[in-house]
Each structure stands twice: as C-alpha cells, then as structure tokens.
Amino acid sequence: MSEISKICVFCGSSDGNDLAITDAAERLGTYFAKNDITLVYGAAKIGVMGTLAKATLDHKGNVIGIIPSFLKKKEVVHLGLTELITTENMHDRKLKMQEISDGFIVLPGGFGTLEELFEIITWLQLGLHQKPIGLLNVNGFYNDLLKLLETMVRKGFLSLENYELLLVDNTVENLVGKMNSFKAPQLPKWLNDSRA
C-alpha cells in the first residue's frame, strides 16, 4: 500500500491532440484506484481532467473534486464523484486542494495547469507545506519547460536545491515512487523565525 493516500492532480480541461496524454491520464487514474490513492482534482468532467476522473471511478477508486462556484455549470462539473467540494473562488480552491492532499502530480495542460504547478511549488519552497510535487512528463510535453528551469538555475534566479524540488519522470510508477521517497528541505535561513 502506498504511503501517500491522496494526490491532487493538476491537468488540462481540454483534451489536446496527443493521444499519449489521454492514455497517461487513464493509466494514472487506474493506478490510483488499484493502489487505494484518492484522486483530488478540479472537478471537471471535460478534457484530461474528465478522462482522469472517469478512469479512477471506472476502477472503483475515490475521487474528490474541488471547484469554485462560478465554474459549477452542468456542462463542466462532474456530478458523479465520491465527493464534490465547492469553494468561493480560485484561491480557496487551491488552498483546499493543498490542505487535503498528501502530494501533487502535474499532467499536461495550459496556463491554469502551469499556474497551479508554480504556485504549489513556490509554497513548498517557502515552507508553507512539505509535500512532494511530481511532473509526469508525457511524451516529452514538459521538455522545454525543464530546459527553461535549467536556464533559470544557470542565470542565478533559481537555486539547484529548489530546482530539485520538482520530481520528474515519464512513468506513473516511477514518479509515485519518487514522491514516496521525498524528503522536504529545511526552511532557508532567511525564513527562520529565530533569525537575528
């Protein structure tokens, strides 16, 4: 049994045009169900999000959806989830996701997915949580993003330690294994309450 019991997944509300991404979402949902990991996600029934939720539910897994009230339209929201939580706004949605999850996985998506990834990893960097964050690099989707992060390290805007907070793999099993082995870093000295 996995050490992580609830994983929040950030991913697209569109399907995209690469079937490998749809397949990866189905594999991830199936893996969650078979390993007693509850899926926490944005509650949509469309796109990669919907595929992921359907695969989890089809294999008798548990799915918690969290959605802000302004997005709770019948053509968007999945009403067949194990639990549906409605929040006042987007910020409260992300806060609730962070509070109830043991870790995070990022699948391919657009602006919203990247925004969620960077906010949650910034919170880890600042010591606001100590949970693992995994990037499932399906079919090289995030190769260019990873190159950009390497450039940020080389140019002195991102420390190597913080770069390594993002766990990356192209298989579900290996990524979850890395997440289970994750050890959160100590807070940087400049964030320590006891500093002079």
Automatic annotation (TrEMBL):
GO cellular component, one term: cytosol
Reaction equation(s) it catalyzes: AMP + H2O = D-ribose 5-phosphate + adenine
GO biological process: cytokinin biosynthetic process
EC number: 3.2.2.n1
Alphabetical keyword list: Cytokinin biosynthesis, Hydrolase
GO molecular function: AMP nucleosidase activity
Coiled coil: none
Entries under Pfam families matching the protein: Lysine_decarbox
TM region positions: none
Keyword Heme among record annotations: no
Family under the similarity heading: Belongs to the LOG family.
NCBIfam families (alphabetical): Rossman fold protein, TIGR00730 family
PANTHER family registered for this protein in UniProt: LOG FAMILY PROTEIN YJL055W
Protein name in UniProt: Cytokinin riboside 5'-monophosphate phosphoribohydrolase
Protein source organism: Ulvibacter litoralis
